[in-house]
């Protein structure tokens, strides 16, 4: 059991009670000398006229202490004058005393994989009673990959989207450890699309110029049985100007408005009758000056494979883009819907002509801008297909929160 013996002055072996306690991982107990008495060899301190006993949990010398419970310090036969619990890097755990100052409890749990020193003074005098323990490291961990990136500027439709590397079963615990705040202030709510994805947004689009801060306090939060978070960080990004583009596929045109004013109108071509374009509000999530589009990656067999599609901007995870088109006849834009579901604008091969509609719209756009498709002949896009939670009512969005 890890019991130990000590050699007494008379040469006999005796059980070391402190060794037993440390091995069991239970509270360490030390007797504190009375006023004017000498500090004991284990760091006990002068206290009241009666002897006092200090009990610390986790116990002195524990090497694999749990980190799922607070640190406690208790005294019998006296009162606690001061308690300080500090990690090796100087970080302190704050705490509170009970009414009689016979017990102190840390307000937060100790961090995993960290050595702590506990210094206790009883009745306001003498040397501090000192114990040390080290918490164990978690066996399994998870992190959350977030968008947008720290320091970036996005359009008014950009949600805060977090994808976790492990499935989360305690959604409430994880969501409580994440906050999204805005300046100017606006209420936000989280919505779980799956056990690995949590998005945040306000009721309406962000206001232009808003500063948004994502705070991740996931370190040692148990997201699933035995699986703990590791992140403790803040991420800040900004909302730029407001740009919302409306694509009318019956009229085969797109109107672009910035800060409420119309700045451009373009002829477009959308999905044909067999491959209609998703309807609804979609957010630009990725941008490529040129990219390859292969129909086999979206379940359409070998219908197309174009390795240099110009000015492509992603609208859905499933493969809907708004992009330049150089292979179609210029006459089809504004007159015919002929694509496999994307929205196309006239462009040139090589993406090197800034005068084309494809190039102009690409230059005017940023990640987070909204492209709303109307009258496409298709149903509204699934809100989980891309960053497209704006297609849910505010009540339905809030219903997907775990807190």
From TrEMBL:
Task: State whether keyword Acyltransferase applies.
Answer: yes
Instruction: Give the residues annotated as active site.
Output: 323, 342
Any Pfam family from its record, for instance, is: YkuD
Question: PROSITE patterns given for it?
Answer: LD_TPASE, PROKAR_LIPOPROTEIN, TAT
According to UniProt, the name of this protein is Ig-like domain-containing protein
| Involved pathway(s) | Cell wall biogenesis; peptidoglycan biosynthesis
Listed InterPro entries: Big_10, LD-transpeptidase, LD_TPept_cat_dom, TAT_signal, Transpep_catalytic_dom
| UniProt KW keywords | Acyltransferase, Cell shape, Cell wall biogenesis/degradation, Peptidoglycan synthesis, Transferase
Q: Read off the SUPFAM superfamilies from this record.
A: L,D-transpeptidase catalytic domain-like
All copies of domain L,D-TPase catalytic, residue ranges: 243-374
The record lists the organism as Streptomyces kunmingensis
């Amino acid at each position: 059991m890890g019991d130990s013996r000590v050699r007494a002055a008379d040469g006999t072996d005796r059980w070391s009670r402190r060794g037993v306690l440390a091995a069991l991982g239970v509270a360490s107990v030390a007797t504190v000398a009375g006023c004017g008495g000498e500090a004991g060899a284990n760091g006990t301190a002068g206290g009241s006229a009666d002897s006092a006993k200090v009990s610390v949990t986790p116990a002195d010398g524990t090497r694999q202490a749990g980190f799922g419970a607070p640190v406690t310090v208790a005294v019998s036969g006296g009162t606690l004058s001061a308690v300080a619990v500090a990690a090796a890097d100087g970080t302190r755990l704050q705490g509170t005393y009970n009414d009689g100052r016979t017990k102190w409890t840390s307000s937060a749990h100790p961090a995993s994989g960290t050595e702590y020193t506990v210094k206790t003074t009883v009745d306001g005098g003498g040397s501090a009673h000192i114990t040390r323990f080290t918490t164990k490291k978690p066996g399994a961990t998870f992190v959350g990959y977030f968008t947008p990136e720290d320091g970036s500027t996005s359009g008014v439709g950009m949600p805060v989207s977090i994808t976790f590397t492990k499935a989360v079963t305690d959604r409430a615990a994880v969501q409580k450890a994440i906050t999204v705040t805005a300046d100017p202030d606006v209420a936000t709510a989280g919505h779980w699309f799956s056990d690995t994805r949590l998005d945040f947004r306000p009721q309406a689009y962000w206001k232009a110029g808003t500063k948004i801060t994502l705070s991740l306090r996931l370190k040692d939060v148990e997201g699933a049985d035995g699986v703990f978070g590791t992140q403790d960080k803040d991420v800040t990004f900004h909302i730029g100007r407001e740009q919302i583009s409306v694509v009318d596929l019956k009229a085969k045109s797109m109107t672009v408005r910035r800060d409420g004013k119309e700045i451009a109108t373009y002829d477009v071509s959308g999905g044909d009758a067999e491959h209609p374009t998703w309807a609804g509000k979609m957010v630009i999530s990725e941008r490529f000056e040129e990219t390859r589009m292969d129909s086999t990656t979206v379940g359409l067999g070998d219908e197309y494979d174009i390795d240099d599609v110009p000015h492509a901007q992603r609208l859905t995870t499933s493969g809907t883009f708004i992009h330049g088109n150089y292979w179609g006849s210029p006459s089809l834009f504004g007159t015919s819907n002929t694509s496999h579901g994307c929205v196309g604008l006239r462009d040139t091969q090589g993406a090197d002509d800034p005068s084309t509609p494809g190039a102009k719209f690409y230059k005017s756009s940023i990640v987070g801008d909204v492209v709303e498709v109307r009258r496409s002949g298709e149903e509204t896009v699934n809100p989980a297909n891309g960053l497209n939670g704006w297609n849910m009512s505010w009540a339905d969005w809030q219903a997907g929160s775990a807190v």
